[in-house]
Amino acid sequence: MKKDIGVIPAVYPMPVLMVAAYDENEKVNVMNVAWGQICGGDKIILFIGEGKKTWLNIKESKAFTVALADVDHVDVADFFGIASGNDMEDKFERTGYHAVKSDKVNAPIIDEFPLAMECELLEFLKTDHVQGVVGRIVNVKANEEVLDENGKVVPAKLKTFAYDEFQKGYNIVGEPFAKAWNAGADLMKK
Ligand SMILES: Cc1cc2nc3c(=O)[nH]c(=O)nc-3n(C[C@H](O)[C@H](O)[C@H](O)COP(=O)(O)O)c2cc1C
Fold it and tell me: Which of 33, 44, 64, 68 to mutate to test the pocket of ligand 1 (most atoms within 8 A of CB)?
C-alpha cells in the first residue's frame, strides 16, 4: 500500500551540474546546480536563485558553461554548492582547479570535469512561481577518454553521479540495461 509522504521534489535522479561564469574582471566562479534540465535540443534551463554570485556573473557576462561533475571530484563539486563567491573571495582558487576560456562563449571551462556545455545566455525567466536562467548550448567539449569510436559520449566513462534529494546524497549512476525508444516497441504491435 502506498503511504502519503508529503510535499517533496520527488524526482530522481537529479543532475549534478557545475555552472561556471566570469565576473566583470574574468574571475572564475562555479556553483553546484541540481535543479536544472535540458529544455530543447540546444537549450538548458538552470533554476538559480537570484543574487547568487553565479546569477550575477551570468547577468554580467551573458554566458556560462555547464559541466557534469564526476566521482573523482565530488569534494570540490559539493564545495561549489556550499560556498558562495559572494562571501568567499577565493572560492575557485582555493580548490587548485584550472580553468581555460571557452573559444565559443565568454565563460570559463573547468579542466577537471570531463564534459562541458558552452552556453550563451538567452534569457532570465521570472514568473510568480519560477526563476530560471535559459541558455543556448553552442557547443559541447568532452575529454577523448569519455567518447566511443564514433565520437559519442559513453555515460559509464563519464563517471558522473546523481543528486538524491530524498536522502541528500550523491549516487553513482547505473549501467545501461535497455534500449530507449525500443523497450516498449512490442506493445505497439498489439
Ligand atoms: C547538491 C546541491 C545542489 C544545489 N542545487 C542548486 C540549484 O539547483 N539552484 C540553486 O540556486 N542553488 C543550488 N545549490 C546551492 C548553491 O550551489 C549555493 O547557494 C552556492 O553557494 C552558490 O554559489 P555562488 O553564490 O558562488 O554562485 C545546490 C547546492 C548543492 C550542495
Answer: 33
